[in-house]
Q: What sequence folds into this?
Protein backbone atom coordinates (compact mmCIF):
# COMPACT_ATOMS: atom_id res chain seq x y z
CA UNK A 1 0.00 0.00 0.00
CA UNK A 2 1.33 3.45 -0.85
CA UNK A 3 1.76 6.10 1.86
CA UNK A 4 -0.91 8.18 0.13
CA UNK A 5 -3.38 5.31 0.59
CA UNK A 6 -2.77 5.46 4.36
CA UNK A 7 -3.84 9.11 4.21
CA UNK A 8 -6.79 8.70 1.84
CA UNK A 9 -8.22 5.42 3.13
CA UNK A 10 -7.42 5.56 6.84
CA UNK A 11 -6.54 8.98 8.23
CA UNK A 12 -9.08 10.90 6.13
CA UNK A 13 -11.78 8.19 6.47
CA UNK A 14 -15.29 8.73 7.80
CA UNK A 15 -15.37 8.30 11.60
CA UNK A 16 -18.99 8.32 12.84
CA UNK A 17 -19.82 10.86 10.15
CA UNK A 18 -16.80 13.04 10.97
CA UNK A 19 -13.53 13.62 9.11
CA UNK A 20 -10.13 15.04 9.96
CA UNK A 21 -9.56 18.48 8.42
CA UNK A 22 -6.14 17.36 7.18
CA UNK A 23 -3.44 14.78 7.84
CA UNK A 24 0.09 13.84 6.89
CA UNK A 25 2.84 11.32 7.41
CA UNK A 26 6.18 13.10 7.75
CA UNK A 27 9.58 11.47 8.23
CA UNK A 28 11.50 12.39 11.38
CA UNK A 29 13.85 14.31 9.06
CA UNK A 30 10.96 16.54 7.91
CA UNK A 31 10.43 14.84 4.52
CA UNK A 32 6.76 14.48 3.55
CA UNK A 33 5.84 10.84 2.85
CA UNK A 34 2.20 11.66 2.08
CA UNK A 35 -0.34 14.33 2.96
CA UNK A 36 -3.92 15.37 2.39
CA UNK A 37 -4.54 18.13 -0.14
CA UNK A 38 -5.07 20.85 2.46
CA UNK A 39 -2.32 19.96 4.96
CA UNK A 40 -0.56 23.19 6.02
CA UNK A 41 2.73 24.16 4.43
CA UNK A 42 5.09 23.86 7.40
CA UNK A 43 8.58 25.15 8.10
CA UNK A 44 11.46 22.72 8.80
CA UNK A 45 12.03 24.33 12.21
CA UNK A 46 8.43 23.51 13.18
CA UNK A 47 9.10 19.79 12.58
CA UNK A 48 12.41 20.08 14.45
CA UNK A 49 10.56 21.59 17.43
CA UNK A 50 8.01 18.78 17.40
CA UNK A 51 10.70 16.07 17.19
CA UNK A 52 12.58 17.78 20.05
CA UNK A 53 9.43 17.65 22.20
CA UNK A 54 9.23 13.89 21.68
CA UNK A 55 12.86 13.64 22.85
CA UNK A 56 12.41 16.16 25.69
CA UNK A 57 8.70 15.98 26.66
CA UNK A 58 7.28 19.33 27.71
CA UNK A 59 9.69 21.49 25.73
CA UNK A 60 6.86 22.89 23.53
CA UNK A 61 4.49 23.63 26.42
CA UNK A 62 5.87 27.13 27.25
CA UNK A 63 5.84 28.39 23.63
CA UNK A 64 3.10 26.30 22.05
CA UNK A 65 3.25 23.98 19.07
CA UNK A 66 3.50 25.63 15.66
CA UNK A 67 2.54 24.02 12.35
CA UNK A 68 2.16 26.06 9.19
CA UNK A 69 2.47 29.20 11.29
CA UNK A 70 -0.59 28.23 13.37
CA UNK A 71 -0.06 28.07 17.13
CA UNK A 72 -1.63 25.26 19.15
CA UNK A 73 -1.71 25.16 22.95
CA UNK A 74 -0.04 21.91 24.01
CA UNK A 75 -2.32 19.75 26.13
CA UNK A 76 -1.80 16.39 27.81
CA UNK A 77 -0.30 13.74 25.58
CA UNK A 78 1.87 10.70 26.15
CA UNK A 79 5.51 11.73 26.74
CA UNK A 80 7.72 10.50 23.91
CA UNK A 81 4.77 9.02 21.97
CA UNK A 82 1.88 11.48 21.41
CA UNK A 83 1.59 15.27 21.38
CA UNK A 84 -1.85 16.86 21.47
CA UNK A 85 -2.65 20.49 20.79
CA UNK A 86 -5.75 22.68 20.94
CA UNK A 87 -6.72 25.76 19.00
CA UNK A 88 -10.22 27.17 19.32
CA UNK A 89 -12.80 24.49 18.48
CA UNK A 90 -10.18 22.24 16.87
CA UNK A 91 -6.76 20.84 17.44
CA UNK A 92 -3.99 18.49 16.41
CA UNK A 93 -2.75 15.03 17.37
CA UNK A 94 0.76 13.89 16.47
CA UNK A 95 1.89 10.29 16.98
CA UNK A 96 5.58 9.38 16.72
CA UNK A 97 6.62 6.07 15.20
CA UNK A 98 10.16 4.74 14.79
CA UNK A 99 10.64 6.65 11.52
CA UNK A 100 7.81 9.15 11.13
CA UNK A 101 5.26 11.53 12.61
CA UNK A 102 1.56 10.94 11.95
CA UNK A 103 -0.40 14.22 11.96
CA UNK A 104 -4.14 14.64 12.30
CA UNK A 105 -5.78 18.08 12.38
CA UNK A 106 -9.45 18.38 13.27
CA UNK A 107 -12.19 20.92 13.83
CA UNK A 108 -15.67 20.63 15.27
CA UNK A 109 -17.86 18.67 15.05
CA UNK A 110 -15.08 16.03 15.24
CA UNK A 111 -14.02 15.55 18.84
CA UNK A 112 -10.46 15.42 20.19
CA UNK A 113 -11.06 11.78 21.16
CA UNK A 114 -12.05 10.83 17.61
CA UNK A 115 -8.93 12.51 16.21
CA UNK A 116 -6.73 10.82 18.82
CA UNK A 117 -8.22 7.42 17.98
CA UNK A 118 -7.63 7.76 14.22
CA UNK A 119 -4.06 9.09 14.49
CA UNK A 120 -2.90 6.87 17.34
CA UNK A 121 -4.38 3.70 15.81
CA UNK A 122 -2.48 4.39 12.56
CA UNK A 123 0.71 5.16 14.49
CA UNK A 124 0.42 2.00 16.58
CA UNK A 125 -0.05 -0.06 13.41
CA UNK A 126 3.07 1.46 11.82
CA UNK A 127 5.10 0.86 15.00
CA UNK A 128 4.00 -2.80 14.91
CA UNK A 129 5.24 -2.93 11.28
CA UNK A 130 8.64 -1.60 12.43
CA UNK A 131 8.18 1.77 10.75
A:
Amino acid sequence: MSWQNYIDEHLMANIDGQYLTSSAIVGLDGSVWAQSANFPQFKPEEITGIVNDFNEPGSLAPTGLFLGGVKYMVIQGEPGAVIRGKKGSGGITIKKTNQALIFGIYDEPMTPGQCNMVVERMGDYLVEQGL
